[in-house]
Amino acid sequence: AGAHKRSHALCECLAPARRSGGGSCMMPRLPLPAAGPRRSYEEQCPGRCNGRGACDGEGFCRCEPGWWGLDCAITMSGGGPPSIELSDREKRRAAAGAAGQARGAHRLPVSVYVYDLPPLLRAGETSFESWFDFELSLQMLRHPLRAADPAAADFFWLMGPSSGAQLVDKLHWARQMYPAWNASVSRGEARHLAMLLSERGPGDVFDNMLLTTSPGLRAAPARAAAARHNHSKRNRRWLDPEISPASRTRAWVQLTHNGLADARTPRGEVAERCVNCFHVGKDIVLPFTPSTIDVPSCEDLRNWSVWSPTRGSRSTGDADRSAGREHLFFFGGRIHPSLEHARFLSYYDGPGSPHVRADILRLKGEPGFFIHNSFLPPPRMRKALGTKAKPAPRVSHLEMERHASFCWVPPGQRYGDARRHVPSSFLGCVPVFTMPESGGRTYDELIRWDDVSLDVPQSHLPRLPSLLRAVSSTRLDAMRQGLGCVWRRLWFSSIYGACLGEDPA
């Protein structure tokens, strides 16, 4: 449970292990996941070790002689190259996945090598859904293009959720143990895949003061504290340009829920910094799982989606999908009066920084607009404003989106990635994106968003009512019909199950 450090002649505990009173490295007991497929690292080894090894109860396969890999599926026989041999159970699951891949005719084949990471580097509950990390890794292990030989692989999979310290340890392990890291760096490529599945990715697990694209400079907030932090040995490792999430030359790909490219230099500062640190063309966005933040549960989608085949006797024809939409526009969420609640953001330029959600609130009362602000000012703010604000009445966002023609998709309240397009696509409510200049729309490379949504910059929000009313009914119906294809791109049925009768493969 540790890594030997020659320079210090001792063992350092790898995250998330901690040193016990007796000096040994001990793994904290991991709670069971709260949702998702009912597995945990304590209970389930990958692929059940394919019947060629013993599971030690902590997610580690002790493989029989002649077999290796996280799931004991790699072997070498007859003097030939290494090969993957799955158990019959895993072959059946792999075949289902291969059928789904075959239907994606435009996909280019790539091979992925799954690193045989030590258990302490791939276990932990440090993300929104640690089970999702595990299920994605199982799919990689079963994938027909999984590589048995790292020398033949295009990409390299680093299993498991990651805290900041654990991710750094994991990436350093890959760099030290395998030649693939240096080979990809020499070609200027990022080929190692690591998951940071939380609302703001690196900003949720790294010290924001270290997320700067200028390693020689420090971010402005709390400069004195940053100076102290930057002298620590571990934090110097975080600032390694090949490792740092903020570095433009980092040598790994971030699998994240947040696709907001927010690297910028705030007004009055000298260092470019970021919180989400998404790199367009390098990183990959994965949709949030059911019942997470703004994403509905499968049960809710079956009850409310206009594409659901299980909505009882109600029609799901074209007329029904357009009928009953008495609101032109809907948005519901917390609307802070300014960005003062999120000074850590790279978008914060001091008092008076433009706040996109505050801008939309100015349209409340516009005919056909239903804007619901659930933000309740804290007591200190209420006292300063001289108001006795009460919580706003609760509304059903699913019901409101089902009865609106357009639904607003802004950044999260702390500039997490926009994700309200997921429920709105299921409910036939045409998304209206308002993103920062550096922010893109999820899956721009796969979805022709211009055919099924509107893109309204923040500077154009005062004209939003006239822009929406200018959309013809014919175009609106065509956009709504297009959403019937879009939701399938936003829902990973092969991992968390079919909700609307779709093929989960």
**Number of DSSP helices?**
18
Profile the largest sheet.
5 strands, parallel
Radius of gyration: 25 Å
**Oligomeric grouping of the chains:** single chain
Number of extended strands: 19
Distance between the termini: 37 Å
Low-confidence segments = 1-12, 27-43, 102-106, 219-234, 312-316
Determine the strand fraction and express it as a percent band.
Answer: 5-15%
Q: What is the helix content?
A: 25-40%
Strand order of the largest sheet: 10-11-12-13-14
**Could you tell me the mean pLDDT?**
77
Please state the structural category. alpha/beta
General form: globular
Defining key terms:
505 residues; alpha/beta; 5-stranded parallel sheet; 18 helices; 19 strands; 27% helix; globular; disordered N terminus
How would you describe this protein?
By secondary structure, the chain is of the alpha/beta class. It is 27% helix and 13% strand. The strands form six sheets. The protein has a five-stranded parallel beta sheet with strand order 10-11-12-13-14, with helices on both faces. It is globular and about 75 Å long. The N terminus is likely disordered.
